[in-house]
Structures
1.
Amino acid sequence: MSTRGDLTRLKILDTARALFAEKGYAAVAMEDIRIQCGLSRGGLYRHFSSTKEIFTRLIETEQNNAFSALDKAMKNGIPGALMLNAFLRSRIKHLFNPKEYIDNAVNEFAASCPECHALIVKRAENSVDIVAEMIRLGCEQGAYSCENCRAAALHIICLLEGLAKHNALIPMTAQETKKQLEIIENMLK
Amino acid sequence: MSTRGDLTRLKILDTARALFAEKGYAAVAMEDIRIQCGLSRGGLYRHFSSTKEIFTRLIETEQNNAFSALDKAMKNGIPGALMLNAFLRSRIKHLFNPKEYIDNAVNEFAASCPECHALIVKRAENSVDIVAEMIRLGCEQGAYSCENCRAAALHIICLLEGLAKHNALIPMTAQETKKQLEIIENMLK
DNA sequence: ACTTTTTGCGACATATATGTCGCAAAAAGT
DNA sequence: ACTTTTTGCGACATATATGTCGCAAAAAGT
């Protein structure tokens, strides 16, 4: 367990995430990351050999975190409506953070190569599946009434992505955000 | 009126749009456009001197077209609900077309420089304004009933963007699209 | 027919990013 | 203390994109 390398790896990943969030995927070069990290050419390449590798790593860990959080909630028997509410809040918190919002870069990344595309498609499908499952649970538990859970889930996921994209251009007020959450809840009732 | 130059300019713009739609903004180099058009270095630079200039042009003409279409509808006294319906259909048609969907690239473009950012912010504001106006009209005319037209407009615009982004990854069926439109209409009633 | 303007060409100099390599210092293992 | 492994460095060769320029052909104007 060598911590030194791990630390620089983490620093590289964090720095890269912020850069991807700010500029997009293709606009970021290894050179940019290297400079921002204060590393030398060889220093960076020792750990990662391309932006593709770095971005893939970012997505994979994000994915893993999401799944473990969900598993935990499921095991604790949290009600569907509560889970969805928590999910939405957490999603918005991350998506609306300028240093973390890489969802725009994600599509670019997907376009850059077939494996990347497959990874991102799976990620998108997972999101919809998870939300659909929460809604279904909420319906069973009487919190929601919804004839087409999948359509509702797709609606919610796409709305979130759209809001985040819009927010990156024109930051939303807390009130506006709240209003959008209300619209979603009304839709499910 | 020299048609020769105009034709190549159009060809460059069309080609560039398709490339931007496919790869994103930063991933497209003048070199790519040049090659795709079958032009020489000097041939391309005669007309445009950067991808920034080309992208700006694309956005501006798109903007102009949207405004003239709206003006026409307004002058003909089309009802608000009908206008919104036509707007949504036309938007979806364009947004869901892989060769035309540049809305993902748009955010990257916005991040690339301050003027670009200003242009795109205005574009986003315009979209919301236009839809809000249509909803307001629809309310006046009794087709809709909606206490917060602006929030509804924001919801619709962001949903469209999100759907388009999702569609670029996982193409939606006609049924799914129809279902989403229904959800929107229900929201406004 | 002629002159002028527009258009496109490809060579060139320049700038910038990529990826590799041997070396040395730092850290870890024994 | 010594050896081995990990980490970071910066020079290097390579690849790729940018932007300019003078020239020639094509088109348009007269």
Note: Residues 114-140 of chain A form the longest helix (27 residues).
2.
Amino acid sequence: MPELAEVEYFRKQWNPGLNHRIEEVRIHPKARIFRGMNTTAFVRALTGAALEKSEARGKQMLFIAKKKSAKSRAWLGLHLGMTGKLRVERPDFQPAKHDHLILVQAKHLLVFEDPRLFGRVLFAEGIEPPAWWAKLPPDLLSHEFTLKALDIFLKRRARAPIKAVLLMQERFPGIGNWMADEILWRAAIHPKQPAGSLGEAQTKALYREIRWVCREALRIIGAKWDDPPDSWLFNHRWEKGGACPRTGAKLQHATIGGRTTCWSPARQKLH
DNA sequence: TCCTATGTTGTATG
DNA sequence: ACATACAACATAGG
């Protein structure tokens, strides 16, 4: 489910737990979301610590916790994979099958559920943010994501279809399958077009629509999970026999870059 | 039964 | 070393 805006929405679901102590940590230690980590140290570090703040960068989230009078902090990274969700429950809630991580507080349970287990938990202790957080690529709405940076990346991935390139988190953190399709539809670029073959005007349009879709998705979905208006491709891409909201022509589907892709052949032509 | 699903990663190949 | 493509991961629902 979660791309940029959905991740931001889920991050805020744990806001009721900020500035409150974690009394207990309940986990399914063998769940795949904990792969590669020391769950014993993880539970020990978080138990008794207070949640200070949280941040989201692309599809990654960071929760910071600190024990009273400790110098070092506990850095909890969460990735929601395909089906992860964060939610809050009352303290007497009985965990369900896919609730793999629960931070128990006096007034709330902070729950991470993930049926398909493609999500991931990261953890570190220390004074400085860990490398897996500090080294994330620049936000697409920051000044560091420039037209020039976009152009350089497209030319390095010259032969890959632009749809596949937009899914690369090292340059487009937070973009997922539906956002990539929405961006290409707005920029009138065919998803199969090789990234290195975009002309100057196309690259500019792509840059503009990347920023626009990120901003609007965060505003509409990230805040309250409202539905985008019907003028978006988003509302039509999964409809049976769906039509392009701008041309009225029938939408087309194919697997591109390993993912089901939707586009409007009337707007997005292969050059 | 078979196909699909808003994601990443390990591995093979060029 | 770098770029590209794709199976694999695990579960539920149509």
Note: The radius of gyration of chain A is 20 Å.
